[in-house]
Design goal:
- The protein has four helices and seven strands; from the N terminus they run ββββαβββααα.
- It has helices spanning 61-67, 107-120, 126-129, 132-141; strands at 9-18, 24-33, 40-45, 55-60, 77-84, 87-96, 99-106.
- It has one domain (9-141): Transcriptional Co-activator pc4, Chain A.
- With 143 residues, the chain is of the alpha+beta class.
């Protein structure tokens, strides 16, 4: 019998895209954690068009954890606590050559998601789940 592979953690949620005029638009998204990529979390933004491919952003799980309580990240991905009259959120700022976007993520959704990821791969045990050969193959095939 083979080794049981820990399950991927995936949570569907609605984020709010904060427009420059401070209005906010709901955006369907998924938070995903794959134990085979144990240091990263992935946010998939679902296109509203039929057949539209989701846009995926990946960044360090630790960045998301740190951003729950204090500003974290530099460059393409920044995360920080965000309090509003509507409740507690986490701001997720994404930058790319195509532009910048600021999202509000419900803090409670992120906390539940992160707790589930730590059940699958506890903090400090990520290297036990890393398939170095597969990671190197992915890097080399990306050229």
């Amino acid at each position: 019998m083979g080794v049981l592979r820990p399950a991927t953690v995936e949570v569907e949620t609605s984020l709010r895209l904060v427009a420059p005029d401070a209005t906010a638009l709901p955006v369907r998204a998924s938070l995903r954690y794959d134990p085979l990529d144990p240091y990263a979390v992935h946010v998939l933004f679902h296109a509203e068009t039929v057949g539209g491919e989701p846009v995926s952003w990946s960044f360090a799980r630790d960045l998301l954890v740190k951003g729950l309580d204090e500003p974290a990240g530099i460059g393409d991905v920044r995360v920080w606590p965000w309090s509003t009259p509507r409740g507690e959120f986490v701001a997720l700022a994404l930058s790319s050559p195509d532009g910048n976007a600021l999202f509000e993520v419900p803090r409670s959704v992120l906390v539940r998601f992160l707790r589930r990821t730590y059940v699958v791969v506890p903090r400090g045990k990520e290297s036990d789940h890393l398939d170095v050969d597969a990671a190197v193959a992915r890097l080399l095939s990306a050229r």
